[in-house]
């Protein structure tokens, strides 16, 4: 069964505007749920005071 014409038009309008659509990849959502610190993102330098902070 196909979507009603009004729904198809709405989806087309949203897609043209870059809006999030069900069943499609959403780059903003992927960015928001990604880990904040990625492996290798920061160097391995230790605290110069040597006290573990």
Task: Walk me through the structure.
The chain is mainly alpha-helical and 53 residues long. Helices cover 36% and strands 0% of the residues. The longest helix has 12 residues, at 5-16. It comes from Streptomyces kunmingensis. This is DUF2934 domain-containing protein.
Output the structural class: mainly alpha
The oligomeric state is single chain
Indicate the percent of residues in helices.
25-40%
Q: Give me the strand/helix succession.
A: HH
Taking pLDDT < 50 over at least 5 consecutive residues as the criterion, the unreliable ranges are: none
Backbone CA Rg? 22 Å
Number of helices: 2
Query: In what range is the share of β-strand residues?
Result: under 5%
Average pLDDT, to the nearest integer? 79
What gross morphology would you assign?
rod-shaped
How far apart are the first and last residues' alpha carbons, in Å? Answer: 61 Å
Largest sheet: none
Number of strands: 0
Fill in the keyword field for this structure:
single chain; 53 residues; mainly alpha; 36% helix; rod-shaped
Please outline what is shown here.
Helix content is 36%, strand content 0%.
List the helices and strands and how they pair.
Elements: H1 5-16, H2 27-33
Organism: Streptomyces kunmingensis
Protein name: DUF2934 domain-containing protein
């Amino acid at each position: 069964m196909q979507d009603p014409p009004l729904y198809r038009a709405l989806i087309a309008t949203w897609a043209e505007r870059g809006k999030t659509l069900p069943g499609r990849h959403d780059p903003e959502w992927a960015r928001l749920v990604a880990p904040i610190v990625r492996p290798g993102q920061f160097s391995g330098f230790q605290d110069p005071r040597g006290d573990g902070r």
